[in-house]
Automatic annotation (TrEMBL):
<keyword id="KW-0560">Oxidoreductase</keyword>
<dbReference type="Pfam" id="PF02670">
    <property type="entry name" value="DXP_reductoisom"/>
</dbReference>
<feature type="binding site">
    <location>
        <position position="126"/>
    </location>
    <ligand>
        <name>NADPH</name>
    </ligand>
</feature>
<dbReference type="InterPro" id="IPR013512">
    <property type="entry name" value="DXP_reductoisomerase_N"/>
</dbReference>
<feature type="domain" description="1-deoxy-D-xylulose 5-phosphate reductoisomerase N-terminal">
    <location>
        <begin position="6"/>
        <end position="134"/>
    </location>
</feature>
<feature type="binding site">
    <location>
        <position position="184"/>
    </location>
    <ligand>
        <name>1-deoxy-D-xylulose 5-phosphate</name>
    </ligand>
</feature>
<dbReference type="InterPro" id="IPR036291">
    <property type="entry name" value="NAD(P)-bd_dom_sf"/>
</dbReference>
<dbReference type="InterPro" id="IPR003821">
    <property type="entry name" value="DXP_reductoisomerase"/>
</dbReference>
<keyword id="KW-0521">NADP</keyword>
<feature type="binding site">
    <location>
        <position position="220"/>
    </location>
    <ligand>
        <name>1-deoxy-D-xylulose 5-phosphate</name>
    </ligand>
</feature>
<feature type="binding site">
    <location>
        <position position="229"/>
    </location>
    <ligand>
        <name>1-deoxy-D-xylulose 5-phosphate</name>
    </ligand>
</feature>
<feature type="binding site">
    <location>
        <position position="226"/>
    </location>
    <ligand>
        <name>1-deoxy-D-xylulose 5-phosphate</name>
    </ligand>
</feature>
<feature type="domain" description="DXP reductoisomerase C-terminal">
    <location>
        <begin position="269"/>
        <end position="384"/>
    </location>
</feature>
<feature type="domain" description="1-deoxy-D-xylulose 5-phosphate reductoisomerase C-terminal">
    <location>
        <begin position="148"/>
        <end position="237"/>
    </location>
</feature>
<comment type="pathway">
    <text>Isoprenoid biosynthesis; isopentenyl diphosphate biosynthesis via DXP pathway; isopentenyl diphosphate from 1-deoxy-D-xylulose 5-phosphate: step 1/6.</text>
</comment>
<dbReference type="GO" id="GO:0030145">
    <property type="term" value="F:manganese ion binding"/>
</dbReference>
<feature type="binding site">
    <location>
        <position position="154"/>
    </location>
    <ligand>
        <name>Mn(2+)</name>
    </ligand>
</feature>
Length: 396
């Protein structure tokens, strides 16, 4: 068994920490060669002391100075770099063969794309990168000749339920009829629309089943997360959009399903614990202990499945229409949503205005065929600006 050399983009976040937990339990299988983080320098220093990567990357020079000092005190020889270019170095110059892409949002696109081009095994948690650049990202993966393994629990579940090789030769093959993405419905599933007006960031971040970063927690509450995941599934698995369905399943036990032509429906079940898909991606095609408690079906009262109400969750409807429009529409959707969620978390934008901001920006900016990464980044910037302007107008 050869040791896998792993770079983690976003090692101080929820996915990054869970990845290190799985790696910690299997030192004979994995060696961490690069760690990156934007803030939380102390936590990154502790991670460097434990895993001794060759490279550590932070966002800015001030952070790098602090981290260097902390590592010097610990007599560590990890090379400390900073900035966007350095994130790409962490992927291409660290000697890694596996990259955990777990930076949140569009900030993760460039290094994840670099991993794709460099032919790495890409463990994709950063769904926003794929939503923004779907076609071009998949082309980069193909050109690089690496392996793309989904870490998002729903896509990991579907990957596990598909026949071997499906992701390389989809489109009507192997008798696959539909993909069913399950969604918990988030903390506000049963609230009336009127009660949503006063939702606070703390309430939105308290997910009933999963512990996650703040941005994805808000996305789960609005169900924009599921919308992004529909687009993610479209690119990963290459089925037409109308074959990708969403089901509300509040228990989060069935992580997603594949319906086949012969009447079979295959589901992947487990605890709502990201260490399962992370361990699957890290060791694929082997199965290793993820440290996750066994699922006890006798302890479950029931499993229920219903169709989502798009009036309750307008973000889901917006994501479906951006997916259908194609081109740069998902880029616009994602950028406006990132700005709206940040404004909700940090600037008091009312919860119900998140979807309004996204809708407004989607109406304001025409989508076009996606032709290059430079164009996508320009559209991303324009959509962020439009969202910021609209939010400013709303506040006055
Ligand atoms: P998080 O907020 O907990 O962590 C984000 C990480 O990215 C941190 O290490 C942070 O330092 C880093 N980061 C943030 N902004 C950055 C920037 N501008 N430049 C460089 N680094 C930056 O988020 P998370 O919950 O771990 O989610 C990470 C990604 O995984 C997201 O795209 C999310 O949608 C996806 N995901 C998460 C979960 C989950 O259970 N947490 C499940 C499925 C998918
Ligand atoms: Mg998910």
């Amino acid at each position: 068994m050869s040791v896998k050399r792993v770079a983690i983009l976003g090692s101080t976040g929820s996915i990054g920490m869970n990845t290190l937990e799985v790696i910690r339990a299997h030192p004979e299988r994995f060696k961490v060669v690069a760690l990156t983080a934007a803030q939380k320098i102390e936590r990154l220093a502790e991670q460097c002391a434990e895993f001794k990567p060759a490279i550590a990357v932070v966002a800015d020079e001030a952070g790098a100075v602090r981290l260097r000092q902390m590592l010097q005190e610990k007599n560590l020889s990890t090379q400390v770099l900073f900035g966007a270019e350095a994130l790409i170095s962490a992927v291409v110059d660290s000697g890694c063969d596996t990259v955990m892409a777990a930076i949140v949002g569009a900030a993760g696109l460039a290094p994840t794309l670099a991993a794709a081009r460099a032919g790495k095994r890409v463990l994709l948690a950063n769904k926003e990168a794929l939503v923004m650049s779907g076609d071009l990202f998949m082309q980069a993966m193909l050109a690089g000749g690496g392996e793309l393994l989904p870490i998002d629990s729903e896509h990991n579940a579907i990957f596990q339920c598909l026949p071997n090789g499906f992701t390389n030769h989809p489109q009507g093959q192997h008798g696959v009829e539909e993909l069913w993405l399950t969604a918990s419905g988030g903390p506000f599933r049963d609230l009336a629309l009127a009660d949503l007006a006063s939702i606070t960031p703390e309430q939105a971040c308290a997910h009933p089943n999963w512990v996650m970063g703040r941005k994805i927690s808000v996305d789960s509450a609005t169900m924009m997360n599921k919308g992004l995941e529909v687009i993610e599934a479209f690119w990963l698995f290459g089925l037409p959009l109308e074959k990708i369905k969403v089901l509300i399943h509040p228990q989060s036990v069935v992580h997603s399903m594949v319906r086949y032509r012969d009447g079979s429906v295959l589901a992947q079940m487990g605890q709502p614990d990201m260490r399962t898909p992370i361990a699957y991606g890290l060791a694929y095609p082997e199965r290793i202990n993820a440290g996750v408690a066994p699922l006890d079906l006798t302890q479950l009262a029931m499993l229920s499945f219903t169709e989502p109400d798009t009036k309750q969750f307008p973000c889901l409807a917006l994501a479906f229409s951006a997916a259908a429009a194609g081109g740069t529409a998902p880029t616009i959707l994602n950028a406006a949503n990132e700005i709206a969620v940040a404004a909700f978390l940090d600037m008091g934008l009312p919860y119900l205005q998140i979807s309004q901001v996204v809708e407004q920006v989607l109406n304001q900016i025409d989508s076009a065929p996606a032709t290059s990464i430079e164009q996508i980044l320009a559209v991303d910037t324009a959509a962020r600006l439009a969202a910021q302007n609209y939010i400013r107008d709303l506040r006055h």
